[in-house]
Amino acid sequence: MTKDKIKEVMDACYQAKRIRDMLPALPGGVTPSHIHYLDTLRKLEKMEGKVRVSDMSENLGLPRPSVTKTVKDMEKLGFVEKETTETDGRFVYIKTTRTGRDLVDKYVDEYFGNLSENLGGITDEDADKMIEVVEKLYIVMSNRK
């Protein structure tokens, strides 16, 4: 890739950040990370049933301490609950509360469902290619530290 093309890619990343900034305003105390974590937790709950912080960490590709901190914040806000197993208290599972599910319903399902109606000109293949390129760029940039 040429230097000029790399600049175009970085300009597109800047544009992508501006697009993310156009997402709907969240209620007080709620961050985009909370919505992302809740959406991920909901998906994992559907696939696996019980979910641990380590499952979230692995799925999000984030360090466990960071995920633990955000989960604690979400617990204080009433978006998730923790539960331990009766046989071994060391195993702590997290699950979404009704409030957490309502947030995901509104800010992910409804919003993105409505948005998809306006994105008919972008195919799944286009989106998959964009995702692939962003993931490759992320890996390269992460390894340059």
TrEMBL record:
The keyword Transcription regulation applies. It comes from Anaerobutyricum soehngenii. The keyword DNA-binding applies. InterPro entries: ArsR-like_HTH, HTH_MarR-typ, MarR/SlyA-like, Tscrpt_reg_MarR-type_CS, WH-like_DNA-bd_sf, WH_DNA-bd_sf. Gene3D superfamilies: Winged helix-like DNA-binding domain superfamily/Winged helix DNA-binding domain. Residues 1-139 form the HTH marR-type domain. PANTHER family: TRANSCRIPTIONAL REGULATOR, MARR FAMILY, TRANSCRIPTIONAL REPRESSOR MPRA. PROSITE patterns: HTH_MARR_1, HTH_MARR_2. Keywords: DNA-binding, Transcription, Transcription regulation. This is MarR family transcriptional regulator.
